[in-house]
User: Fold these one by one.
Assistant:
Number 1:
Amino acid sequence: MTKNDFESVVREHQRMVYSIACNFFHNDAIAEEVAQDVFLQLFEHHRTIQVGTHCVAWLRRSTAHRCIDAMRRASFRQELQVDSLPEIAADIPETDPLLQEGLRRLIASLPEKPRTILILRYGEDMDVEEIGRTLQMPARTVWSHLQRGTAMIREKAARYLKEKVLEGDRR
Amino acid sequence: MSQFERDLRESLRHREPPSGFAEKVLARARESETRHRSKPWLAAAAAVVLMIGGGIFVEQQRQQTEDEKAKEQLMVALRITGSKLRNVQERLSTIQQRAVQRQSNP
């Protein structure tokens, strides 16, 4: 990749890198910082990286690892309290922004590995094998983290809805 | 795909980064490049310092080896001289003894 290619790569993939970081941290400022660092790392290694699929895979891998490292360093794990979720209406439309926000917060509250895997699976539309290659772990482990992550989200969401229903009954 | 998976996909869809994101990245890249450019001078200066320091060290080592060699040679020479002197002394004392014997038994 040449220096001229770098600018077009930044413009083309900024949404992807920023979104992975943003979904991971659920915090715009940290996501922006991590995403910038990823592109700077790309700039430092631009000679060894080819434009195209290689570059996209490199960016996804680098972003995922940077997110995990940044979280371990700062240990700003966000343990989500169900009460802190936004109100979810009983009749949920197809694309409810409150539901989306609730899910984003639940995803950001997961342990780092299931969280990263869920983001790559549903945010980047990657299959289990691709995620395994990106995170350097066996496909079976990816699969088990994915199952665990979705189960945790379902459980947290169900608990939240149950609390709301009980609250409604009491009234 | 289940509704739950569709919801996950929807909630994790790509979002626009803050405005000016790309410009900030490019500015930081240029800045980092400038910093890297100044590094060859630093590396060259460090190399020169190392070479001079290394040269001084090697010279000191050579001088020390030479000194030790000279000291050793001097010690050997002194030992040889000492042994020669002892031989001469022994011979002298033998001659002296014989002379005394001759004088007492003419």
Number 2:
Amino acid sequence: MKPQRVKTIRQLPIDGQALKRLIEAGLTWLRTNQQTVNSLNVFPVPDGDTGTNMVLTMQAAMDEISNSHETNFGKMAHSVAHGALMGARGNSGVILSQLWRGFARAVDHQEILDSALLAHGFALARDTAYKGVVRPVEGTILTVSKDIAAAAEKAEKYAIDPFDVLDEVVKEADLSVQRTPDLLAVLKEAGVVDAGGKGLFYILDGMLRFANGLPLDTALTTVQPLAAMTFENSLEAIEPGQDFEVVVDFQPANSLDLESFYSQLQEMGTSIQVGEGEGIYRMHIHVPTEKLYEPINYTRSLGTITKVSIENLIAQMEALGASKGSGGLTLAPVEPGQIAVVAVSPGSGISRVFASLGVAAIVEGGQTMNPSTQEIINAFENLPTDQVIILPNNKNIILAAQAAAGLTVKKVAVVPSRTIPQGLAAMMRLAPDNEFDEVVQEMTEALDSVESGEITTATRSVEIDGVAVQEGQTIALHNGQLVLAANSVEEACLGLLEKAHADHFELVTMFYGTDMPKTEVNRIADIVRDAYPEQEVEIQEGGQPHYQFIIAIE
Amino acid sequence: MGHIAIVTDSTADIPEELAERHNIHVVPNILVIDGRSLEDGRGISRQEFYASLPNMKAFPSTATASSGTYQHLYGRLFQEGFEQIISIHAASLLSGIFNAASLAAQAFGECVHVIDSHYVTLGLGFQALAAAEAALHESLESILALIEDVRRRVRVVAMLDTLEYVRRSGRVSWARAHLGELLQIKPLVEIRSGKVFRLGEERTRRKGIERLLRHLRDLGKLERLAILHTNAEDEALRILGELRSDLPAQSFCVNVTPIIGAHVGPNGLGFAAVIR
């Protein structure tokens, strides 16, 4: 991105190839700031990361056009929209794909983008995104899309070229994002701005920075709250040069110069994250084998190291491959004409239970890894029936499931399960030979027949719904609402069961996660059985990450 | 005495006094417990059977009465002066009874009409009862038509207290395919056209019974109703009591024959109903 290139892109007509470069710029800038967007998490739970979801959605759009020589702007925009839709992950990814869809419609078959067309594009993008959501909520990416459409309309009247419009749009996006906490109480309570809106800002800002010749690949130095750092290694995606993951906790001797800290680390490796909490800094980096000790030695030159952790990612990936191969899962055979169910599951034990209830296909995913629209489609496209029901089992996967339903010739319905217990309750109502609409209705009605509990560790300190949470505490969610913070898993379990009035129910099923040792599970199960002698308590291996327990009360 | 005899088998679950009143000839099936062969209804009561079922060393097996038994009965009925016999039996897809009876009927030419009811327990029983009620004054053709008419209107739905027995019996393919990871599970099933269909599951007994009742209420007005159970008489009577105002003239509770109940297990609940 050298200055002379600036002149080029701002002076040349904006055709299909220019759009490709702008998309790439938007994606690059979003990726650079991915962790910042991820850290804008309202709930203190390990959640589907908005930044990651939006990057993967934009990446899918980029993949769709990366080899295209199309010069027609409108046609290229449609390819972008298609790629985004197929790759959409999480609610923010789906809404982003809807924005692109509306934009593409506005520029249908247009050779070149001009200011008026761009303003029209933002307007249709806004309309399409609002229509794509059943109950639009203000203070989100939707509001930002509305505000920038208005700004574009105003700017278009005196703009000389589309970048003048984009200038105003980016300014307004920034302001609009800052206003989101005034519109959405949960944001204000959590002290954050809307993550999806912020992601949209970075995409547009990236395009503008590209046009202005500003760098896109060096992060504006970002520091996250320590507890918000999650090193979710999507292991399939490990590239050469990412042999080891190194995490160093340290106390800098002097105040840390983030700019130079980042640039030094960039010489050594990738996937750099820096977190800070109570004077301790945490640095995360992926490095090739030969540079394994460089980040440690470098950090030591800056202050006192308190902790170092090194993980061999290659070995982990191999182990994962092996366990995937052996983990046999017997899925329900489906006959033509029968109803097949596709369920999203975060863990092997939960997958087995879904399979035992007659699920025909499993999509791996959940809280921390939202599957894409395409992954959901792939799961059912080859089933020998054209009647399919999707159970997303997570509130952040419902939209992607609905997008998948709209992209196939098969008859597909989404039963909007927001938790694993809801998904299991719905599954109980599956009668694969009955009439489709009736079964969908039955399964949807079943969602409210169970109380859902989730036990996890708070990723940061916050106060929500009157519950004060300290980072690192165990927290309990009842039907998706934060209800208490506790100092142990057992305390959280008992507190949750009390809040859910488990004594009025018959059966408590506890799915334990990967980070729960079996002895600890048994000990807690005994405590729960003692506290609820009238209730049946069933313990199941869930295999989910991050959540010590997922609990069904019915 | 009419000129048409009605024969069925013990899987029809027709209460004894009703069978006697309507002169229905019921052929007992065979139950094999720990190597001992018993005629259904003799040697062990239904209550005793279900109470001891969970502790039986070997899974009890069942057998149909022999072709010879049917042939002997048909011969005796013709000797008694009947001119035609309607012999109606458990779904041929679920049991060999229909085959045994058909084989026996061959000796009597056109005079024995062996019918596959496509149902078991009172799903079959109500077809036989309707036939017997009409046998006194209706023609053979209209009785056969009536049986088909009742068959179209009969519904049999049940809640199993556990998957264990139906899976062990190996008669239902989906029960083998789905390995029942969850310990607490109450499958709901429906018999239709001689096959057992899965209607889904519930996690608790209370919800299972609620769902069963919902299926029953969805049927609307009824002509006949039997609440079926396997040693869950209190709950069956309670259900009957709750339905009191909506009950058809013919309604009763039945502790289901061990021939079927061995595959269901104790504490199952269900219904057989004929829609008006």
